UniProtKB/TrEMBL annotation:
This is Endonuclease/exonuclease/phosphatase (EEP) superfamily protein YafD. The chain crosses the membrane at residues 44-62, 69-88. Keywords: Endonuclease, Exonuclease, Hydrolase, Membrane, Nuclease, Transmembrane, Transmembrane helix. GO terms for molecular function: endonuclease activity; exonuclease activity. Pfam families: Exo_endo_phos. The keyword Transmembrane applies. Residues 109-326 form the Endonuclease/exonuclease/phosphatase domain. The lineage of its organism: Bacteria, Bacillati, Actinomycetota, Actinomycetes, Micrococcales. InterPro entries: Endo/exonu/phosph_ase_sf, Endo/exonuclease/phosphatase.
Amino acid sequence: MIQRFLAAIFILATAAALIVAAWPQLFSLEQTVGIAQVVSLRGLSAAAAFVAVLALTLIALLSARMHRFAASLAVIGLAFSALSLVVLSTRGFGSPGFETKADGDVTVLSWNTLGDAPGASAIADLALENDADIVTLPETTREMGFEVAQLMAAADHPMWVHTLAYDQVSKSRSTTVLISVDLGEYDVDVQTRTTSTLPSLVATPQDPSMPTIVAVHAVAPVRGEMTNWRTDLDWLAEQCRGTNVILAGDFNSTLDHYASLTDGADFALGSCTDAASVTDNAAIGTWPTQLPSLLGAPIDHVMSTSEWTTTGMRVIESHDGFGSDHRPVLAMLSPAQ
């Protein structure tokens, strides 16, 4: 009798935990330690649950004593996997098509380089291949930024270079952005702290018709940084409530984490739309490169305010072996009509 009672309690607790993991926004728990990490890896969680379902099904078939217990857990795990798959499918498993670039369109490339790991040539080649107007490079030093800009200038694609570094101890505490000279000159306040632990750079145009550019690097939601991570997301949401803003970089967060920070169902964060979300690419993982993209976390984003419409986006998987643990993301934005 007691064993049955304990088994029932365990089954109910498992069901409750998986309901929270599947849709933590329902309980306002999407930024809670533990849950925030699990929901980042929806694809991996769904795959792990399905493997558990297969094992539990086998146990249920082979053990009369464990049949009801294992079968109940298998049903719960299958429901979790199915719900996770539904969520991922609504976000999109990849639609890499781009419209033909027109006058006024802006191509944005972002790549967390893990401390300059891919090298200047790889970064410049990728930017040139895609005719990038804005290149945001979290964990990238000023020296690397200038090397990339020199290579791009030699290919007749000159770029301004700006870097914000919180210190020179670690390359992860530098964020660099390259901006096409065709967009005009930009100013960066290197004295003002932005995101809490790792720098996000705000480039303000001298021409007020041009977009403000935010090169993003929020801290990861790890032990000891959860408060800073939530503060970083709040700061990013405020940037998204500005006018004519483009944000790109390593947000260290997924769409699930923004439920309390969005200004409406039409927006992803603040008053920004997410390029991956509106082009059916938001289930494609950008980190880590060691995992297949469908099992990874989509934590690198390109976002923009209502002055821009996304006309193409893709996660670049061809550079997984170039040294970084992040995949580059590419988006094309067109002025809203």
